[in-house]
Amino acid sequence: MISIFKTLREGVQLLAAVMLIAFGGSQAVHAAGLKIAMVMPGPISDNDWNSVGYNGLQAAAKALGAEVAYSENVSDADAERILRDYASRGYKLIFAHSFSYGDATLNVAEDFPDTTFMAGTAKELAPNVGSYSNPDYQGAYLAGMLGAGASKSKTIGWVGGMPAPNMLANFHAYEAGAKAMVPSVKVLHSFIGSWFDPPKAKEAAIAQVEQGADVLSAQGVGVIDAANARNVFALGAMTDQNHLGPKTVLTSVLWDLGPLITAVGKAVEDKTWKSQNWSFGIPEGAVRLADFHGLDAGVSPDVLTAVKAKFDAIKSGAFTVPLDTSNAD
């Protein structure tokens, strides 16, 4: 008897669902859940920019109960095609997770006005295109303080990909933090002209070591390899990269993209999303320094105290890290 009633109940539920769909019921649409896609320029296993994107996407999927998909190793030339494919397949929130996908995003968004796009960087916004920044420059200021304070040669290095606004902001903040700690410090920098070229990044980092740098800011995969080879400190980026150099990676500037993707997804679901630049940094708990894994024993306690005090000041709003995106000399 129980099984008969169960069958009848399931039949009624199925009929109700069919009727909702047939008459455009909003509950049926909500039940389907939000579909979020992300397009990335490199591999999700890079322990860097693309890993952050992937981890944030998975965190948002769990928080929102959303269906997610991603494409990795997507060149600029292929970005528009893949973004368009996701939009045509019903993904209503699409993240173009690169500084160089802006034009492709704007082109696709024009043809899919009911889809929300988020571009890592775009030259302009549109009614259905927002942007999100990586305010790791806030952490870069702390890394610069730490690097200058830990350096014995008073020469430190920074190796990045391409001179996009976010990268320039990171470098300038790193240099500003270093000089705030040690005014006479020399800060070397290199842009390798690629977002993912480990051998080239390693080569650029070794060149800086040969110029006296004994602390390196690793803004690209390959820099930590150079630190390991030359036995100098490295400051990791995006994820805790100590496992890549247990004896050399002093700490890393972490970026947790999960809170931002979740907030954007919720806004899309609630129909409160706005076309603007979204930025979650130290005050929002999305940027911080990783564990030192015991390597802080080789750094002056005064330096560590100063870095901690500055982190607290940034978090409370008592200090604002300068945002400088001007070209590097």
Task: Describe what you observe in this structure.
- The chain is of the alpha/beta class and 329 residues long.
- It has eleven helices and twelve strands.
- The strands form two sheets. A six-stranded parallel beta sheet has the order 2-1-3-4-5-11, with helices on both faces. A six-stranded mixed beta sheet has the order 7-6-8-9-10-12, with helices on both faces.
- Helix 3 (49-64) packs across helix 10 (258-270).
- It starts with a helix and ends in a 13-residue tail after the last helix.
- Mean pLDDT is 90; it is low at 1-31.
What is the gyration radius calculated from CA atoms? 23 Å
Determine the fraction of residues in helical runs and give it as a percent range: 40-55%
Average pLDDT, to the nearest integer?
A: 90
The string of secondary-structure elements, in order, is HHEHEHEHEEHEHEHEHEEHEEH
**Count of distinct strands:** 12
Poorly predicted segments: 1-31
> What portion of the residues fall into strands of 2 or more residues?
15-25%
User: What spatial order of strands do you see in the largest sheet?
Assistant: 2-1-3-4-5-11
Shape: globular
Strand-pairing-aware structural class: alpha/beta
- Main sheet properties: 6 strands, parallel
Compact summary:
With 329 residues, this protein is of the alpha/beta class. 45% of the residues lie in helices and 17% in strands.
